[in-house]
Amino acid sequence: GVRERARGVLRQMLTPGMYRNLTLAKREPINIEGGKDHYTPLLIWNTTTRTELKNYLHCKIQLVNTKGKWDDWVEDRFRFKHSKLCNMLTVADIYIKVFNEMPLEYRLPGYVKADVFIKELIERLNVFCKTCIPGWKTAGSMIIEANGGSAPEDSQAEADPLVGLSGDPNQHQLSTMVSICKALLRLLRIYPKISRVYQKQMINISLLLAQEHKDLQEVVGELMLELTSSMVFASLVHPHAHLFHAVVAARGGARD
Q1: pLDDT of the residue at 255
Q2: Which of 236, 220, 238, 218 is nearest to 228 (CA)?
Q3: What does each C-alpha distance from 148 to 87, 118, 239, 243 come to in angstroms?
Q4: Above pLDDT 70, what percent of the chain?
Q5: Could you tell me if 222 and 254 are in contact, meaning their C-beta atoms sit under 8 angstroms apart?
Q6: Per-residue pLDDT at 230 exceeds 60
Q7: Would you give the distance in Å from CA 253 to the centre of its chain?
Q8: Which residues pair with 39 in a beta bridge?
Q9: Ramachandran bin of 106, using left for φ above 0, alpha for ψ from -120 to 50, beta for the remaining angles
């Protein structure tokens, strides 16, 4: 409806973080027009975002005064983007680069659902595997079924725009996957109980990533070591233990 489209437009103009803050019952008092800058995994708001929003609104106000209406507010035609934010990787409205830069003691606010964040990160990896690993369905089925899981199904979901369909990932895509793996590694350490639910799925995907892309082996090795630290190694990884050991060897580690 109109209200939902209007909310979508407002969300783009204010950024997801600022929009979220305004909709919280107990929100942080943030001055949209001035005040201090914010640089957190949930909110980036500074002189640049303020200036771009002001300039955009000033231009549109002049247009409305001239035409008597604002035609391009409809969400599917709305094209306003903050120049410094539009290319930043976000998952569940969280800036991954900033999240990975946070001190180890950093914790997400209570209103952020960690399980949703983890699931969306895993789905990004899953989409990457499906689109950039040749024979993902066959290879994925072998590893997942060997570990007691279900074979991957063909997804009808829209592909991640950061992942190409050529089967040959570029450096930007690989860098994106490294960032996502680092975020998952951090979440495993912060929320071990929640993450345990997704351990098998993450191991399955990690094995494929490590096998197919050497650029990912180091961070995937760290992720796999963390994943298996509280699990029975043989029962989960034994069918493809050679892959696991290759990953560990690549990062200079060892495991008996």
Answers
A1: 44
A2: 236
A3: 38, 21, 11, 18
A4: 68
A5: no
A6: no
A7: 27
A8: 44
A9: beta
DSSP state of 78: -
Total residues belonging to the chain: 256
Is the model's pLDDT at 89 over the cut of 50?
A: yes
Q: Which residues contact 63 (CB under 8 A, 6 or more apart)?
A: 70
If you ran DSSP here, which 8-state letter would residue 117 be given?
H
Cβ atoms of 127 and 209 within 8 Å: the answer is no
Nearest in space to 200 (alpha carbons), one of 243, 245, 150: 150
For residue 145, what pLDDT band results from cuts at 50, 70 and 90?
Answer: very low
**Is the pLDDT at 45 greater than 60, yes or no?**
yes
Q: What SS3 state is found at 149? A: coil
pTM attached to this predicted model? 0.76
Neighbours of 59 (CB within 10 A): 10
